[in-house]
Amino acid sequence: MNIRQSIRNYVQYQRTLRELNSLDARQLNDLGITKSDIKNIALGKGL
Q: Which DSSP letter does residue 43 get?
């Protein structure tokens, strides 16, 4: 993986974290996830 791809991946990770963390517990529940799942989802590891 080159530096450009690493930067893109990091930016996407940060964006996903920011967006999911902005949701409340009810909205996350509607998606079938919890606050503790967010980091793994942002890393692309899923549930």
A: T
In a domain, 47, yes or no: no
Residue that has been written with the tokens 């974290």 in this structure = 17
User: How does pLDDT run across 1-47, given as a tens digit for each residue?
Assistant: 799 999 999 999 999 999 999 999 999 999 999 999 999 999 998 77
Instruction: Residue count of the chain, please give it.
Output: 47
Q: From the centroid of its chain, how far is CA 34?
A: 12
Range of the domain at 38: 3-42
Residues 15 and 5 sit within 8 Å (Cβ to Cβ):
no
**Total domains, the chain:** 1
Residue 42's contacts (CB-CB under 8 Å, 6 or more residues apart) are 13, 16, 17, 20
